[in-house]
Design a protein that fits this description.
Largest sheet: none
Shape: globular
Radius of gyration: 18 Å
Strand content: under 5%
Structural class: mainly alpha
Number of domains: 1
Helix content: over 70%
Number of helices: 10
Distance between the termini: 30 Å
């Protein structure tokens, strides 16, 4: 891949990652509830799903899924259901002790956070269709495709991890100012509303 082509793809990755969506909401929610370092496990799950989606597209299965209305709708409604479940969880989350070091026992396990992030990204068919539409535009058909897909995947993941670190860290800093149960409850319900909003947006996405 030529440097100018990679540079254009690199710029596109920043635009894509910075666009607010379910991944950003999940990252902020994890940062708010668990702090930066533990909440960042959610971002690892998001990236694992991204790798799987790129592999699906590279294998050619993505084109089949993109062409199938039934497959698209099944994955879409799975994503809608999972986002609504997260909204329900966030709405009913109890205020917690937010004084930094005493949070340790309240953490979800890393595995649970990775799983949540993975399910959020993997159940978004729009993301896979988007990858299917964008990545081939930067491929050079005269060169081996595996190294090109590898480079683009590493680029996407690197950029997304930086952006999601920003979302996670920004929300984690809010912890210092949330002392009362009322403040924590209001923020939990704000994130619940954002998850529900993301589910609503996903529900009206149609395969073109």
């Amino acid at each position: 891949m030529e440097f100018n082509v990679w540079l254009a793809f690199f710029a596109a990755c920043w635009v894509i990652s910075l666009s607010p969506g379910a991944s950003a909401i999940a990252s902020m929610s994890s940062g708010m509830r668990f702090g930066f370092w533990h909440g960042y496990w959610n971002v690892i799950g998001l990236q694992l799903a991204l790798v799987v989606q790129v592999l699906i597209v590279a294998a050619g299965i993505g084109a089949v899924l993109a062409a199938s209305v039934l497959a698209f709708e099944l994955i879409k409604w799975l994503g809608v259901g999972y986002l609504l479940y997260l909204a329900w969880q966030q709405w009913h989350a109890l205020p917690s002790q937010l004084d930094g070091e005493t949070q340790a026992n309240a953490f979800d396990s890393p595995f649970r956070l990775v799983s949540k992030g993975f399910l959020i990204n993997i159940s978004n068919p729009k993301a896979m269709v988007f990858i299917l539409a964008i990545l081939p535009q930067f491929l050079n058909p005269t060169e081996p495709q595996a190294p090109q897909y590898t480079l683009m995947t590493l680029t996407m993941i690197s950029v997304d991890m930086i952006v999601m670190a920003g979302y996670t860290g920004l929300a984690a800093r809010v912890l210092r100012y949330l002392k009362s149960p009322h403040q924590q409850r209001m923020l939990n319900r704000s994130f619940a509303a954002m998850f529900a909003g993301a589910a609503s947006v996903l529900s009206v996405v149609h395969k073109s």
